[in-house]
Specification:
Largest sheet: 7 strands, mixed
CATH class: Mainly Beta
Radius of gyration: 17 Å
Number of strands: 7
Structural class: mainly beta
Order of helices and strands: EEEHEEEE
Distance between the termini: 71 Å
Strand content: over 45%
CATH architecture: Beta Complex
């Protein structure tokens, strides 16, 4: 035989927390704090992934009416990861006092 074939699999990891970038979010909050992440890669790597293996970061795109944050995912080497949804609406933060 010519060598082992590595199976490529895809799965979804739910409820991955979103980290907001430090600047630009003053006065706003994300409409949702967790998203599902679709991961794809070698079966041995994909099967060992957990929420802690992934980092979802929100990047401010606009503020005011229609403001939203684009989401990017950082995953271990060899893994392709995509947040679903890939953006989140911003809400004005209502603060007390």
């Amino acid at each position: 035989m010519a060598g082992e074939v590595t199976a490529i699999v895809e799965r979804s990891i739910d409820a991955v927390p979103i980290a907001a970038t430090a600047s630009g979010f003053a006065g706003f909050q994300l409409a949702q704090e967790r998203v599902s992440v679709s991961v794809r890669g070698p079966e041995s790597k994909v099967n060992t992934l957990t929420r802690d293996s992934l980092r979802v970061v929100a990047h401010l795109v606009g503020t005011g009416t229609g403001g939203y944050a684009r989401l990017t995912v950082t995953a271990p080497p060899g893994i392709v990861a995509r947040a679903r949804p890939d953006s989140v609406i911003l809400k004005r933060r209502v603060g007390r006092g």
